[in-house]
Design brief:
The complex is a heterodimer of chains A (about 425) and B (about 475).
Chain A (H helix, E strand, L loop, with lengths): L2 H11 L4 E3 L5 E2 L2 E2 L2 E3 L4 H14 L3 E4 L16 E4 L6 E5 L4 E5 L4 H9 L3 E2 L11 H7 L6 H4 L2 H4 E7 L5 E5 L11 H5 L8 E8 L1 E2 L3 E9 L2 H12 L7 E6 L5 E9 L1 H15 L4 E3 L14 E6 L5 H15 L4 E5 L4 E6 L4 H14 L7 E5 L2 H4 L11 H11 L15
Parallel strand pairs in A: 4-6, 5-6
Antiparallel strand pairs in A: 1-4, 2-3, 7-8, 8-12, 9-13, 10-11, 10-12, 14-16, 14-17, 15-16, 15-19, 18-20, 18-21, 19-20
Helix pairs in contact in A: 1-2, 8-10, 10-11
Chain B lengths: L1 H14 L4 E2 L2 H5 L15 E3 L4 H14 L3 E4 L16 E4 L6 E5 L4 E4 L5 H8 L4 E2 L12 H7 L6 H4 L2 H4 E7 L5 E5 L11 H4 L8 E8 L1 E2 L3 E9 L2 H13 L6 E6 H11 L9 E9 L1 H17 L4 E4 L3 H12 L1 H4 L6 E4 L2 E2 L5 H15 L3 E6 L4 E8 L6 H18 L18 H4 L2 H14 L40
Parallel strand pairs in B: 2-4, 3-4
Antiparallel strand pairs in B: 1-2, 5-6, 6-10, 7-11, 8-9, 8-10, 12-14, 12-15, 13-14, 13-18, 16-19, 17-19, 18-19
Helix pairs in contact in B: 1-3, 9-11, 9-14, 14-15
The chains are: A alpha+beta (about 425), B alpha+beta (about 475).
Amino acid sequence: MEAAAVLDALAKATDGHASVAGGDDRVDGVPARWVAAPGSTEEAADVLRVAAEHGLAVVARGGGTKLGWGAPPRRLDLLLDTRRLDRVVEHAAGDLVVVVQAGVPLATLAARLAVAGQRLALDEVVPGSTVGGVVATGLAGPRRLLQGGVRDLILGATLVRADGVVTKSGGKVVKNVAGYDVAKLVCGSYGTLGLVTQAAFRLHPVAPAAAYVTVAAPDPAAVHAAVQSALHAQFVPTAIEVDRPADGPATVALLIEGTGAGVAGRTAQAVGALGPGAASGPEPPAGWGRLPAGDVLVKATTELAGLGRLLDGIALAATRAGLPAAVRGSAGAGVLYAGLPDDDPAAVASFVDALRGAAPAWSGSVVLLAAPPPVRAVVDGWGPVAGLALMRRVKDQFDPDSRLAPGRFVGGI
Amino acid sequence: MAGLDALAARLRAELGREKVIDDRQELRTYECDGLAHYKVTPGLVVLPETTGEVAAVVRACAAAGVPFVARGSGTGLSGGALPHADGVLVVTSRMRRILEIDRDGQRAVVEPGVINLQVTRAAAPHGYYYAPDPSSQQVCSIGGNVAENSGGAHCLKYGFTTNHVLGVELVTPDGEVVELGGKAPDPPGYDLLGPVVGSEGTLGIATRVTVRLMRAPETVRTLLAGFPGTDEAGQAVSAIIGAGVIPAAIEMMDALAIEAAEAAVHCGYPGGAGAVLVVELDGPAAEVQAQFADVERHCRDAGAFEIRLAADDAERALFWKGRKSAFAAVGRISPDYIVQDGVIPRTALPEVLRAIDALSRESGVRVANVFHAGDGNLHPLVLFDDSVPGEGEAAEEVSGRILDLCIGHGGSITGEHGVGSDKARYMPRMFSDADLDTMQLVRCAFDPEGLSNPGKVFPTPRLCGEVPGKRSGVHPLQAAGLAEQF
C-alpha cells in the first residue's frame, strides 16, 4: 500500500481533515498510521470506502474517554475521529425526540436540551463522553433504572458500513416496528459492525423537583434489603445506586424526581422504607453516577434477586486476591462496577476468575472494561459469551474482512 | 408433497402422532391469522410441547430444506403467521407454562404460548404486572408479542415489548438452541435480542421468554374529554406533553369512530363531540393528583366542552370500553373496513388528520380515526362495501396514501401491527435498498437458507437466496368483524 496515496485519499474524503498519526493516536497502546475526521455522514462514507479500498483496519474515536475499554485492536491503520460530526441535527421538542451526530459531547447535548426543559436520560458517566461513544459501549448511568439504557432510548441510527455504504434503521418516531432493529444491534458493539454517524433518541422532560435519599448499609445483606425495599415500593425512584468504597461501608442512594409536592411526599416514603439512618437532601452524594476509582475497571451484572450474592462475591474475590475493590453502580438495575489497582496483574486475574466462577449463582456476567496492557495480557476480558457463534456470523456479514475494530470485542471479533 | 410426507413421518416418530397434523380439513383451521383475507393452507402443522421438540422440528425442516412458520394465538394483524403452503406451521399453543414468577427479581419466565394477560394475572398477587398491553391481550401469546414487538395503549410511558423482554431462548433456523439475554442486564456480546424482538419469526422461534414485571402503580386516574374536533383534541395532547407530563395513555377517537362505538357498546361518550380523548395517569398518588389538575386544565384550555373523571374502576372500564371496542364497532357502520397502522411525529397530528380528511373527501371513502395520540400511532379505519364494485380498490388506495402521509412526515408504516405479509411491499417506500440490504445481513447471519417465515417483512429476496413466500394475492382488505384486536 502506498502511504502517500492513502493519506491523499483520506484528505480528499474529509476536505483536508486527515493526517499522519501522532504519538497520542493509539488505542490501548496500539499505534494508528493515520487519523481522519469526517465532517458529515457522506465524508464518513468516503473515508470508509478509502479504508475498504486499501484494506485499512479502522477504530472510531470520539472523546477518547473509553478507548481503553475492550481488548486492544489486533491491528490498526486508521483512527476515525468523530469530533467534526458535531451537530444537533434536529431537536423536535414537541415530539420529545432528538437527532444528533456521533461526535457531540453528551454534556453539550444536555445543555442544549435543558433549554427546552428536556434531557436525554443517558447520564454522563465518564466526563467528556460523546454520543457515539456511549452508543458504542452501551454505557448508561443511574437513570437507566426508570428510563432505560442506550438500547431502550435509541430510536434509529445512521450506520456507515465497512464497505462505505450508508444505511439507516428505525426512524425518529417513538413507535416503529418496521424491519429489524439494527440500531439496537449496534448499541454496545464497540465499533465492530459499522460507524454510527448519527442517531435519534427518545427524550424525557426534566422534572421540576428532585431529591436524593441515602442510607448507610454496613454489609451486603443490608444493601440488598435496602435496594429490595426501594424496588418493591410504589414511590417510583428514578435511580437506585450503591457506592461501597474499598475501605468502608456502603451507601445506598435513591433519586426521586417529580412535582414539588409529589417529591416531598415520596421522599418521606423513601426515608421510611430505607429505615433508621436514612436521610434526604437536594444534592447527590459524592461520586453519584460516576465510575469507581481504580485503573482496572470490572463490570459485574446480576439478576435483581442476586444483588447481595454479587456484593458478597466481589468482597470475597477481592479478599482472596488481596486487592482493595471500590464498588459503585446501578444496584436497582443489577449493574455494578468494581475499581481495582493495576499493579498486580496476577491478582486482578485471580479476582476476575473467582468472580466469574461464582457468577452463575446470581445469573450474571463479569467483563473487564478498562485495564492496562499487562493486565489484559493475563485476563480474558469478556468471559463466557452465550450465542457467540451467532455473533461471529453477524460480524462476518457486516464486516467480512474484519477491518472494523478487529479483536476488540467478544471472542476476538 | 412427497418431501412433506417424509417430514411428517419423521416428526411423528420424533414427537408422537398426536402432535403432527396433516389432515386436509384440520390444516385449514390454521389457514390465516388475524388478517383473515390472506389464506394459505399449511403443508403440515406441528404442536410441539418443549424446546427440544421445537428444535427437532426446525432441524428436520433444515435438513429437508422445508420452510417453517411459527404461530402463537394467531391474532396478528399483518399476516405475520400466514402459513407456507409447502411448509410447516409450528404452533406454540401447547407451550403454555408460566415457568417462574420471580417477585424479588421482578421477572417472569414463560413459554411462548402463554397468553399476555396470564402473565399479569400470575404476577398480580405479588403487586406486579406485565406492561405491554395490546388490546388482544386476553388471547394473544407472548411468543407472538416477541415476534411482532407488540405495543398497546400504555406504551407511551412504559415502552414496547422490546423494552420488557430481557431474554429469550431461541431455536435458530438451523435448529440450534441459544440463550440471548436473561434475568441480568447487559450480557456481553452483541445485542441480538434487539433485532430478534420484532423480527416477525424470520430469525428463529422463541421457546422461552424472560420478561420484566413492573410494580403496580399506587394510583390510576382516568379522564374522558369531549372536544369540538380533532384539531382541539390534538392541541390538548401537545399541551399535555409540552408541559412535561407523560401520561400512561392518551387515546383519541374522531366523530365517526365515536359514532361506531356508541352504536356497538353504548359507552355514553359526550354528545356531539367531534373528538374524544381518554387520558390516563398512573404512579404515586401525590404526583398523579398534581398532574391530573394540569391535564384537566390543558384539555379545557384547548376547547374541551365536557370533562369526566372516572370515579371508580367501573367508570374507568366504561371509558376504555368505547376505545377498545372501536375496531369491531366500525363493523356496525360499514360492511367492510381496513385497519391501518401508521406512525407520525405527535406534533404532526393535526396536519395529518386534516390531510386524511381531505383524502377522504376527495375520494369519497370514509375514514374513522382511532389512535394512540401520545405516541403518534394512527389507526385509521378505512370503510368500504366490498359488494360494490370498485369500493375495495378505492379503500386500498386511500389506505396506501395514508401510509405515504406517514412516511412523508418522517414516520413509520407500522407502529405495532408489524409488516408481515401485508406491508412488505411498502418497505421500499420507507427504507432504501441499502437499508433493506443491511437488514438482510442480519437475516443471512441467522437464516442463510431463508427457511424461517420466508416472504414476510421484506419485499424481495436480496441476499443469501431467500425464497419468497406464496402470496394469495395483493388484496389488503380486512373483512369486517375479524379485527377485534389491535
